[in-house]
Structure formats: C-alpha cells, structure tokens
Amino acid sequence: MKINGFTLVEMMITIAVAAILLTVGVPSLTSFYQQVRAEQNIKQIQSLLAYARNQATSYQRSITICPKSNSTSSTCGNDWHEGMVVYATMGLSGTGGTGSSPTQKTLRQLSKFDDGDSINFKYTSITFSSEGQISSFGEDEDSADMVYCPDNKVSLAKGITIYASGSNQLTETSLNCTTPKN
C-alpha cells in the first residue's frame, strides 16, 4: 500500500528554498513599493500644483499651497510631510470682494504622507498670482525644487522643479534628501 505525501527531507528542502526566495524577494518588493509610492505621491503634488494654478487664472485671484499644521487640520504649518492645503484668500463676504478682514477658503487638501518619508522644499508656501505665476519666490529665483524622499533614500527620490512662471516639471536628477536644493 502506497501513501502519498512528503518525506521529512523533501519538506526541509522545500522550506529551505522558500526561505532563500523570501530572503531575496522581500527587500526587492520593499524597494519596489517605495519607488511606486514616491512616483504616486509626486504626481499627486504635481496635480495639486496644476489645480492651484488653474484656479488662480480661472478666478483671477491669488491661490496658495502650504503645508498642513497637522494631518487633521486645514491650517498652514511648516512640515510638508503633514500634507498640503490649497486655499484662496476671500473678502469678508466670501465672494472675493474687499473686506476689512479677509478669510481663507480651503479648496483642496492632500493628506499626510507616509511616516518615514520626507518632503524637502525651501519655502513655507507657494502662491500663484492671478496670472498663474509664482509670487512667493525670491526676486532673483527662477525655480525651486520640491523633493519627495521615501524613507530618506536618495536613490528613490522624486522631484518637481517649480518655475516662477508657474509651470513645473518632474525630475529625478541631482536630488537631495537632506536639505532643500536650489
């Protein structure tokens, strides 16, 4: 009578091969996940920039993008990693008129980015004028780089060069995950 199944030796060999494959495969999957996450998040930021510029030109008013003060707030802070908020400065009546106390109307938000990831940008906000140009850069600056670093790995970093004209371009060269580059 023949019984089907694995012998102890066959099972040990199968487990050893599986362990070797996992040892080689898991780090590659982690790196792949970080790369995809960086690409997805930098494209979300690029889309947010396009949205803000479009709103500025369409409604002829200044539109600002700033980092959120924390992941649940819609007020501006200093850490781009906490997420981003797009707002328009409105007049007292909320119609864009000239009120004595203007208010900010939140138009769109990006939620907090993954823990361990960082976003490096030398400015605390990006303001598009009604012509679609950046009005928040220094006078002599033509562009600024925003760099997204998954787990602070330069090899996987993605960036956006934001031009004073209001346009932007994705970049992967000469990126720095420790300090803003300009």
From TrEMBL:
> What family is reported?
Belongs to the GSP H family.
Q: Which UniProt keywords apply?
A: Cell inner membrane, Cell membrane, Membrane, Methylation, Transmembrane, Transmembrane helix
Localization: Cell inner membrane
Q: What do the Gene Ontology cellular component annotations say?
A: plasma membrane; type II protein secretion system complex
Q: How does it sit in the membrane?
A: Single-pass membrane protein
Which Pfam families does this entry report, sorted A to Z? GspH (PF12019), N_methyl (PF07963)
Mention one GO biological process in which this protein takes part, according to its record.
Answer: protein secretion by the type II secretion system
Read off the Gene3D superfamilies from this record. minor pseudopilin epsh domain
Output the InterPro entries linked to this UniProt entry.
N_methyl_site (IPR012902), Pilin-like (IPR045584), T2SS_GspH (IPR022346)
Signal sequence range: none
Residue limits of the General secretion pathway GspH domain? 43-163
Q: What protein name does the entry list?
A: Type II secretion system protein H
Q: What is its main location?
A: membrane
